[in-house]
Amino acid sequence: MTATAAEVERRRPWILLTPALSAVTLLMVIPTCFIVVYSFWLRTAVGDEQVGFYLDNWQEVLTDPFYRYILWQTIKIAAITTLVCIVMGYIPAYFIVHTQIRHKAFLLLLLLLPFWISYIIRTMSWINILGVSGAVNALLQWLGIISAPLHMLYNEATVILGLVHFLLPFMILNIYVSLDGIDRNLTDAAKSLGCTNWQAFREVTLPLSVPGLAAGSLLCFVLGAGTYITPMILGGPRDAMFANLVFEAIITQLNWPLGSALSLVLLMVLGAVVLTYTRFMGFDQIAKSFRG
């Protein structure tokens, strides 16, 4: 192979990656650079943006206890949501993998149906279910269990409920892909050596499904911590999450510098979570879930 041919061969992967790298650069890298620059500007009293290198926004975000409280609240809600998704998602995924139904693809199709409906519509549907005039209150009053409607909306529990409704399919899909890749002979071998069904599950199936649990947990945590629609619709004033502060600063107050600093803080926190996952697990399982 000549030197020219070798050079072309060496450049071929980069040539093939050019469209993807260009899209990532234009749609993510460059906008992120703009956000970083904006975060050091100042918004004046008259509403103009003062160009320069100022640390006022970062000082406010990093020193104000209010922002630390909302960040902790966001992490807590995302963590609780992830744990609930793990508990609720493992059983359906295990059932789909081990069911004797001929058409498993139909069960997966039912699992994917919620994605065909707008996320906002799915979130707002809980108002008609849990509201004062919603289906749950109407049923309880009709049965004579309560005499007055219960106030079940606009609290932390309903925010977690809405997030679980949104994120549970991601968890089930990741666990399903992980369980489906386990060799059944391993479980049979454990049983032949004297393990009960529970022991075989605990010693063989559960450890081998950890990559799927980790991938699903990462998706649920990052997507849950970064959302603002669910707490805006189903939460109360005290249930705001960090993304709501970004929305409020940019859309309501038109304070792009402060909103940029807030968004970068959230990006760094979630980025740390992703880097931790990459350090121990890698992204292979997430890629498998989308291929599956």
CATH homology-level superfamily: MetI-like
Approximate helicity band: over 70%
Number of domains: 1
**What's the tally of helices?**
14
Q: On the 0-100 scale, what is the average pLDDT?
A: 85
CA(first)-CA(last) distance: 39 Å
Instruction: Using the CA coordinates, give the radius of gyration.
Output: 24 Å
If you had to describe this structure to a student in words, what would you say it looks like?
With 292 residues, the protein is mainly alpha-helical. The protein has a single domain, classed as MetI-like fold. It has helices spanning 3-38, 56-63, 65-98, 104-112, 119-130, 135-142, 156-180, 184-192, 197-208, 210-225, 229-234, 242-252, 256-280, 284-291, and strands at residues 42-43, 49-50. It has a two-stranded antiparallel ribbon. Helix 3 (65-98) crosses helix 7 (156-180), helix 7 crosses helix 14 and helix 8 runs antiparallel to helix 9. The chain is globular, with a radius of gyration of 24 Å. The model has no long low-confidence stretch (mean pLDDT 85).
